[in-house]
Every structure is written in structure tokens, then in C-alpha cells.
Amino acid sequence: GDSVTQMEGPVTLSEEAFLTINCTYTATGYPSLFWYVQYPGEGLQLLLKATKADDKGSNKGFEATYRKETTSFHLEKGSVQVSDSAVYFCALSARGGSEKLVFGKGTKLTVNP
Amino acid sequence: SAVISQKPSRDICQRGTSLTIQCQVDSQVTMMFWYRQQPGQSLTLIATANQGSEATYESGFVIDKFPISRPNLTFSTLTVSNMSPEDSSIYLCSVATGWDQPQHFGDGTRLSIL
């Protein structure tokens, strides 16, 4: 079945450091890919998405590119802030998101001032 | 995006009891889902809530344990029945406003079973 493998955490960075969180997937067909973020004590927020190969999703300084050849969707940010401290989940769905989401295990990011 | 309200936000329950969680959306949505997030873990889909018909359950989840209702396009409930400590989790409702639209999540219900 479909699966998502995500970089294990936790990840600890200093403010203004560069962030990469690796995500690879296994799926039949052409899934849509997502990054969700969960701040402490809250639900999940959609951070960005990509629905086809070579699409780049971006939001709040975060970016991820759908790479079909490497089945990857790595999350990057050029300069992290303390407020970016959260758990980040990579996920896929067979359709644009209106079908079951399959999640990675999540990566906890802590950014220190 | 749609505003999703989940109630209660948290609860502490005794084993053997049942709790019903409500999910209310401020606009009509095509799809509604219920997920479980066990402590320190990722999210797992429990079921898809179908409007006017029985929910579609994922492997490992059964209707007797997690009955779901969806009477209209803006509201759904999930009941966790005959609870045990292993049911201590965060339960999250999500919605998709249309086909091929991403899912958005409520803030979740944090459930602890003593």
C-alpha cells in the first residue's frame, strides 16, 4: 500500500538556520503531496501542497518540490524562526486531498533563539 | 478555508464509558473524515463519514467501537465506545470542500481514559 517515509527527529536549529526535512513516498499512480504543521496543543494546519510532478508548493517561506523521479517532497526553509517550532508531517493522497491521507511519522522541529 | 469546530476540546473519562465528539463546519463540505493520533505518533484514518449513509471504516476500526454519524453536509459525530486506556489519543475531524481539494483539520479532541 501507499506509504510515506519521513526524516526522523527531533531536529534542533538556531534561529536563521537553513531547514531541510526529507520526505519520500511510495504510491501507485500519481498522488498529491502535502506538508502539514502541528503547533503545540493544536490541530494540523495545511502548510503547502503539490498535485503533480515538478510542482512547487510554497507558503510562509517554506517550499517543497514534487520530484517524481526520486519520489520525494522535501521541505525547505532558508531562515527559520523560533515561531516555526512545531511538528511537521508529510502526507499523500490519491486525489487532490479528498481521499484518505497517508501520513509520515512527523518531525519535531525546535528553533532556539 | 472552512472553519471547523470540534467539541469537546479535551476530556478525561472512566474506562467502560462512551464519549461522543462533535465536528461542526461553517459551510457545506463534500468530504468529512475522522483520524486518530496516538501519543507521540502520526495520524491514522479511522473512517470516512458519508452523508446520509454508513461510514466507510479503515482496516482495524469497526463500527461497534467507533460509530459515526453524518446527518448533513456540515456536521458529524464520532463516538468512542466502551473506552479503555488504549483509546487515549487525539481524535481529529478533517474536511475537504470539494473533490480534489486538500483536507483541513479541526483542533482535535484530547481524550484521556483512566
Please, could you describe this protein's structure?
- Chain A has about 110 residues and is mainly β.
- Chain A has strands at about 5, 10-15, 20, 25, 30-40, 45-50, 55-60, 60-65, 75, 85-95, 100-105, 105-110.
- In chain A, strands 2, 5, 6, 10, 11 and 12 form a six-stranded mixed beta sheet that branches. In chain A, strands 3-9-8-7 form a four-stranded antiparallel beta sheet, with no helix packed on it. In chain A, strands 1-4 form a two-stranded antiparallel sheet.
- In chain A, strand 10 (about 85-95) and strand 11 (about 100-105) form a beta hairpin.
- Chain B has about 110 residues and is mainly beta.
- In chain B, strands 2, 4, 5, 6, 9, 10 and 11 form a seven-stranded mixed beta sheet that branches. Chain B has a four-stranded antiparallel beta sheet with strand order 1-3-8-7, with no helix packed on it.
- The radius of gyration of chain B is 13 Å and the shape is globular.
- The model of chain B has no long low-confidence stretch (mean pLDDT about 95).
**Oligomer class:** heterodimer
Estimate the mean pLDDT confidence of chain B: 94
Low-confidence regions of chain A: none
Number of helices of chain B: 0
Order of helices and strands of chain B: EEEEEEEEEEE
Range of strand content of chain A = over 45%
Tally of alpha and pi helices of chain A: 0
Separation of termini of chain B? Answer: 36 Å
Low-confidence region ranges of chain B:
none
Share of residues in strands of chain B: over 45%
Give the largest interface. A-B, 23 and 27 residues
Radius of gyration of chain B: 13 Å
Give the structural class of chain A. Answer: mainly beta
pLDDT average of chain A, as an integer?
94
Structural class of chain B: mainly beta
Q: Rounded to an integer, what's the Rg of chain A over CA atoms?
A: 13 Å
Largest sheet of chain A: 6 strands, mixed
The 3D shape of chain A can be described as globular
